[in-house]
Amino acid sequence: MSMRRITDTGALALHYDLVVVGAGPAGLSAAIEAAAAGASVLVADENLAPGGQIYRAVTRNAPERQDFLGKDYWKGRAIAEAFSASLIDYAAATTVWSLDAAAAEGGSASLGLTLGGEARMISARAVILATGAMERPMPIPGWTLPGVVSAGAAQIALKSVSGIPGGRIVLAGCGPLLYLLADQLLRAGAEIAALLDTADRKQRLAALRHLPGFLLSPYLLKGLSLLFGVRRQVKIVSGVRELAITGTRHADGVRFRAGGREATIAADCVLLHHGIIPGINLASAAGCAIEWNDAQRAFQPRTDKHGRTSVAGVLSVGDGAGIGGAEHAAVSGRIAALASLTDLGLLPPSGTASRLAELERQRQVYRRGRAFLDALYRPARQFLAPSDPDTMVCRCEEVRAGTLRQVIALGVPGPNQLKTFLRCGMGPCQGRMCASTVTEIMAAERGISPAEIGTYRLRAPVKPLRLAELAALPQGPAAVFAVTGRALEHDSIEEEGKNQ
Amino acid sequence: MFLRIREPVEAVTFSFDGRSVTAARGDTLAAALLAAGVETFRDSVVGGEPRAPYCLMGICYECLVTIDGIQNRQSCLVEVHEGMVVNSQHGARLVTGRADR
Predict the structure, then answer these.
(1) Which of A33, A39, A370, A381 could serve as a FRET partner for A441 with CA atoms 20 to 30 Å apart?
(2) What is the ipTM of this complex?
(3) Who among B26, B39, B59 is closest to A48 (CB)?
């Protein structure tokens, strides 16, 4: 029994019990659990190999060669090995661009995906979205310059090509990942010129009431050793209140203000980080209700304790459903798989109840301390809604903060109408890089909560696909009628069938 | 932008804007280009400003390049292959899909 790698659309089944989108800890764990229960499972993932971002390239790297990645990274090995040993269809380098939960007959969901330049529609009785998190965009002047990448990107380079940034490295922003990355870069032999910490000191007090939970957290020791280790080796500037990257065709420095003084530091490579937020595009386009999580300052799909969204047959797990970390994600993936298979009648409710209770107990351990981290690293307002009018907010359509504010002042009702006025959120990234900032600017201008402003309404395709891919989809009679307005001749339908 | 601290196990050669680039089998194209010293991947569509990958995980679309004549490919999600012909992109795309160079 072992995983089957799907490398062209012809090898896909037309129907699965369960399709899992994403092959990080949540998606892999969900798939392993579902396959063990005898369900037919497809895992579709954009990356070249299993592991998601946290365990990226874990099947390709080796502890003796990539020793700098730290012991938590290698926990991904066990999950990836269990995945390889499960009876699962695995489509790597595959983009899922649509999910229509009510499209197919018999209560199945319909998914559109692209693999090797070819698109296909398949159906599934249930879908688990394990699309993970993305870094919260950090719009500051100069952040579009080459030489500026997110901290996550630097970590991906380290994991995927054992690459460390060349030249003078400056890290800027806030959040645990910034210190984890600093630690990994130091272990890999990089020299860090400075870490500019934008964490709001006032948040220390707010975090204090969540301290008891953090003291019981499995992350406590690791967090403290990271913090002290990095502080010993890197110049840290805390209380940074303004940031701008200088340079014309490439970053050459960072200008910052801290403690009332302005300074500039030379840099060849600037790594920005501002916390992580759920990637909600596919869930949102599938019609799942989206809610505001004020503690994490981000939108997320509304889910029950097992991961069910507001759309029947669609579940959302892992960091894509709210930030909880890799081990929390793995447990939540298992929980969602059991819940989903029970809903489908593939597992008896009596047999799963105790196992679900045990997994929920495990998950609770990984939730300890999260509220503390959320409060401590709550991003400062000036980096959520940049005040400088020239700061680029929508990188694709090149819409700046000042332009957004002018149009918001005209009385535009919400982010969706801003699109119509300015095209913000309408480029290839489809709002991923500007949605959070647009909402924050609008909320700040109106003096109300982002929850009331809402976010972009999203529709399929959630990732761009070529017209040629769409046009080459196998066409059923309904599709032909929709386009031509005429029913297909009977024998031509048969011809179509043969061609498929 | 990135320096490899471990030598590639198995080398793959491809071209970027006509120059030959060596990478490791299994690398994503974007990471391979950054590790080969490529600084700018494209000029932005509206303002013509230099851009390079920001996220390396399929979110930002800053890494778009033309691969073997097909434009707007996310180089952070594509594996390098021997003999691949890669070109940077300048300005808005053409509907006809013709490559820049």
Answers:
(1) A370
(2) 0.95
(3) B26
